[in-house]
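[recover] target loaded
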């Protein structure tokens, strides 16, 4: 999310699905205590997922705000304002 690079979503989804399957299998099969190395990697994964969630939420808020401005602008362009009750792009 930080790099904002283009993503091949089909490939990404296939890799994600495979990784989740492997992770699920490993977590069910492993009943022994986890090593510090594995715990560290899991914690980094958790932190990365939280950060990506925050970035995604921020982008969605920005997109909603832009969509609201665009809707307001189109409505104002189509109307002379006679019958409109809206006075701002806020929704």
């Amino acid at each position: 999310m930080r790099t904002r690079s283009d993503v091949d979503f089909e490939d990404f989804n296939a890799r994600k699905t495979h990784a989740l399957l492997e992770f699920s299998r490993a977590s069910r099969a492993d009943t022994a205590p986890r090593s510090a190395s594995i715990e560290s990697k899991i914690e980094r994964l958790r932190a990365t997922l939280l950060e990506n969630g925050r970035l995604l939420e921020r982008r969605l808020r920005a997109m909603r705000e832009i969509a609201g401005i665009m809707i307001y602008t189109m409505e104002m362009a189509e109307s002379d304002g006679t019958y409109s009750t809206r006075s701002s792009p806020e929704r």
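[recover] notes: The chain has a mean pLDDT of 83.
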